[in-house]
Design a protein that fits this description.
Strand content: under 5%
Number of helices: 17
Structural class: mainly alpha
Shape: globular
Radius of gyration: 22 Å
Number of domains: 2
Order of helices and strands: HHHHHHHHHHHHHHHHH
Oligomer: single chain
Mean pLDDT: 76
Distance between the termini: 15 Å
Helix content: over 70%
Low-confidence stretches: 1-32
Number of strands: 0
Largest sheet: none
């Protein structure tokens, strides 16, 4: 799904958090320009990060055996999902409370300290429990799951701290730094380790590099927070119960949103070998690269949609979403034709073993074309106050993807998994368009 803003709880009205605007809309227009500029910075950082990560992934695939690379890919697909139980929604709450407590420095300081303490304790507990589970259930778990729990669960502690810090930095509009620690620092560290080891690594070495990058990011990001966000006076107050209650529904929404794109690797790893996990991951990651222009369109469309909605101009919203729809059709067609022409060479960058996956890659490109057709769907549901409805759609999509993948893997292996994933993307896109029109009267396509 095209991503948008999901950082507010369903009972929070964005108009209540914003200062009153003059009738001529001057400040509103200025704010829109700032949002577009911030989205552009975020997109540029993400593009650089993905380019670096693509290079790092290709070199890691060549530095490890296919089995070891499968273990590593499975771990880095599962860790972000498990880390949600360590973050428990606190990565989204800064957007609300840092502005609410702008004139209440004691509560602002208390919120920052409480967030750090709660997330540190929760993520440490999750890391320890998962490691113990991997040891106790060693004889009952698939090899990929066992390897992940035993050797990489410790990364969850640093991962959780880094991404909660990212939420704080994003809330105070330190956009470059909020993206740098997750998008740039990680692939840079991986590249350094790959070259330092002479391109001879195993999965455990990959875990150490990944965890090391997260540790550096966590320390650096929290130092920035205490220097730029924390108030000078040492006094602080806490409202822990309220903060935790608000973070819980955000935790559910964010967990579902993050789980969906990673569910394929998790299910394939549970039912298939590490080699198939590696192949599935490679083709799905390449397919996602073709959606980056769509991501750019969504980043620019999100604040514009918000502005039109505030003015009650649904006609312009419909015109904008249809423009994005037509642009995404062109993007999907170009991606499919490009893969048809030179797909083997793209796969060859990961190793000769992956060239045979061209058919699955074409299916994934087709699926991503279905996926981006509904445009900035998350922001559309958010600005119209239908976040809860969108969360239910995502939950249903996760369930249907699991069912489709189980059937596809049973009857078609990797190709079956690719077809199942693409069908689920088509199914979800249709549901999004139909339900959004029913709820708002706005036709997305």
């Amino acid at each position: 799904m095209a991503t948008g803003s999901v950082g507010t709880s369903p009972d929070t009205n964005l108009h209540d958090l914003a200062p009153a605007q003059p009738a001529d809309g001057t400040k509103r227009i200025g704010l829109g320009k700032k949002i577009i500029r911030g989205a552009t910075i975020s997109l540029f950082t993400r593009i650089c990060g993905v380019a670096l990560m693509f290079t790092a992934q290709a070199l890691l695939a060549r530095s490890m055996s296919q089995t070891e690379y499968g273990y590593f890919i499975y771990a880095i697909s599962l860790i972000p999902v498990l880390a949600f139980f360590g973050k428990i929604g606190f990565e989204a709450t800064p957007l609300r409370y840092l502005y609410e407590y702008e004139d209440k420095p004691e509560l602002r300081n208390g919120f920052i300290l409480t967030s750090l303490r709660v997330v540190a304790i929760a993520s440490a507990i999750v890391s320890i429990m998962l490691t113990l589970a991997g040891y106790i259930l060693m004889d009952f778990l698939p090899k990929t799951v066992q390897h992940t729990l035993l050797y990489s669960s410790w990364i969850i502690f640093f991962f959780s701290l880094t991404y909660v810090a990212q939420g704080f930095l994003n809330a105070v509009k330190m956009i470059f730094f909020s993206q740098f620690f997750a998008q740039i620092l990680l692939p840079l560290v991986l590249l350094v380790v790959v070259f330092a080891t002479g391109m001879k690594m195993n999965a455990v070495g990959g875990y150490i590099a990944y965890g090391g990058a997260m540790a550096v990011g966590a320390v650096w990001a929290w130092m920035l927070i205490f220097r730029r966000v924390f108030r000078a006076q040492p006094a602080y107050e806490t409202d822990t119960r309220n903060w935790v209650l608000v973070s819980m529904p955000l935790f559910v929404s964010l967990l579902v949103t993050a789980l969906l794109p990673r569910l394929g690797n998790i299910v394939v790893g549970f039912f298939e070998s590490a080699e198939n996990v590696a192949a599935f991951s490679v083709v799905s990651r390449i397919a996602v690269l073709f959606t980056f222009i769509s991501t750019a369109l969504a980043a620019i469309a999100d604040p514009t949609i918000s502005e039109y909605f505030q003015k009650g101009d649904t006609r312009k919203i419909q015109r904008l979403t249809r423009f994005v729809f037509l642009a995404n059709i062109a993007i999907g067609l170009c991606g499919f034709l490009f893969t048809l022409a030179v797909g083997e060479y793209v796969l060859l960058a990961f190793g000769e073993n992956y060239v045979a996956c061209k058919g699955a890659l074409l299916i994934f490109i087709l699926g991503q074309s279905f996926n981006i057709l509904n445009g900035p769907s998350t922001s559309l549901f958010t600005v119209t106050g239908n976040q809860g409805v969108f969360m239910k759609i995502m939950l249903s999509s996760c369930l249907s993807l699991f069912i489709f993948l189980a059937i596809g893997l049973k009857f078609g292996g990797l190709m079956g998994a690719a077809i199942a994933t693409s069908l689920n993307m088509l199914f979800t896109s249709i549901v999004v368009v139909v339900i959004f029109r029913k709820r708002t009267g706005i036709q997305i396509v």
